[in-house]
Please model this.
Amino acid sequence: MRLTLHTFLTFDGVMQGPGGPDEDRTGGFDQGGWVVPYAGDEFNEIVDSWFARAETILLGRTTYDMMFAYWSQVTDPDNLVATKLNGLPKYVASRTLSDPEWQHTTVLDAEIVEQVRALKEQPGGELQIHGSCGLARELHRAGLIDEYRLITFPVVLGQGKRLFTEGLPPTAFTVVESRTAANGLAYAVLTPAPITTGGEYVVVDGKEAIA
Model:
């Protein structure tokens, strides 16, 4: 399977608590719900396009608990996100969850990187991570994520969990798709690529050049 990451980010890289004030107050975070004012047709179109491709869902424990509490209540058959989340196989990375209530859920309780590597080797389409900050960073560090689908919002919070933090391996990306919305949302689909550094700007015969 192909492992794809889907998340929402602020301008300063925060991905914590996008959907509501009480979604994730870890670390005293009190700025939850920053996505809601920007939700609209273009946003919904992008998110629906993600779930239309999903065959298996992979979540960290915090995101799993949040999604279960909300999406298990949505029974509208025309809601694509709910239909996919409630009906597809789900894997949750947790060392404490032993009896998941959400149907079709399997717990990955040890050696997460190796278990995800094994999942990727199974036949199928997309294995999708949604949110799940700590898990996403761990799989990024292991080089297991094949594609990053990121929506950036015109918001700066100054605190909160971030996707990319100090200590992660240097990575460049190839832009597969990008678009912007009238309300300032920026969507990018990226695949990892080797980072290239070196060279410098120089002046040659009075003109700028790259050496």
